[in-house]
Amino acid sequence: MSEQHGKSTRQGSHGSDTADDREKVSIRDLLVAAAFELFAERGYDSTTIDDIVRRAGVGRRSFFRYFPTKEEVVFPDHERALANMVDYLEEGAQDPDPVGRACGAARLVMRMYAENAEFSVKRYALTRKVAALKAHETSVVWRYERALAAYLQRRFATLPDGDARAYTVAASVVAAHNHGLRSWLRSGARGDASAGVDQALDLVHRTWGDTGETLIVVARSNTPMWQIVQQLENAQTSRTLQGN
Questions:
Q1: Which of 32, 72, 82, 222 has the greatest number of beta carbons closer than 10 A?
Q2: What is the CB neighbour count within 10 angstroms for residue 131?
Q3: Where does residue 217 fall: left (phi above 0), alpha (psi -120 to 50 degrees), or beta otherwise?
Q4: What Å distances lie between residue 164 and 4, 59, 175, 239, CA to CA?
Q5: Is 153 exposed, middle or buried (0-12, 13-18, 19+ CB in 10 A)?
Q6: pLDDT at 191 over 70
Q7: In angstroms, rounded to a whole number, what is the distance separating the alpha carbons of residues 105 and 88?
Q8: Residue 230 contacts by C-beta under 8 Å, 6 or more apart in sequence?
Q9: Under a CB-based contact definition with an 8 Å cutoff, are residues 82 and 109 in contact?
Q10: What integer pLDDT is reported at residue 212 of this predicted model?
Q11: How far apart are CA 105 and CA 89, in angstroms?
Q12: With 0-12 CB in 10 A as exposed, 13-18 as middle and 19+ as buried, what is 233?
């Protein structure tokens, strides 16, 4: 669930980008574009950071201002995507459907890939060839999974199997997202980017959406059974409406 290259800016107090923001985006984009040009021409392993900064026309210090390693330039918006996911999950702290919220977080990442499909396909092809990038991608995916698990742990804290459920659902969400995403990337980004991801995430939601909560109705011992059943049905209906 690593994110694709895109333009990320912060808004000033009047809603417009500052000159510094525009400069950062421009230099970042120059470095990423130069890196991928060189990777295509020479291969990843034969391209150095010095090669990248020369091609981009910037100083070596500029590279490390944005990317601590050469691997990071292949995943330029990783931190932004992860931060967006965490914000989205925190906003859903009271969401009555935590599994649905986790699936929604995965859909955010999918939409980021779709914003720049051409770049996403290039990076997928490069990552399949380079062992160091595969390893880096694994670490990226693990950070997404941990963010999902942390959110679900909080939401399932009252369940007897809360921890196990949280980690299992988080892993399922990531696996579903990656299955749909990689199928789309292998096709050359043809068709609807979200179709395969939605189908896989819907399966996760159907499987894990029921948290196994128990409905309790208090009634006198002489209460007619039909009234108890009615109370249970009303409670279930109320719970369903809250979920919507």
A1: 32
A2: 10
A3: beta
A4: 31, 48, 16, 24
A5: middle
A6: yes
A7: 7
A8: none
A9: no
A10: 53
A11: 7
A12: exposed
152-179: pLDDT as tens digits: 999 999 999 999 999 999 999 999 999 9
User: Residues 185, 196: contact at Cβ < 8 Å?
Assistant: no
Contacts of residues 179-187 at CB distance under 8 Å and 24 or more positions apart, as own/partner, are 180/110, 181/1, 181/110, 181/113, 182/124, 185/113, 185/120, 185/121, 185/124, 186/124
Question: What are the C-alpha distances in Å from 227 to residues 121, 216, 217, 221, 235?
Answer: 60, 14, 11, 12, 12
What is the CA angle 198-201-207, rounded to 5? 140
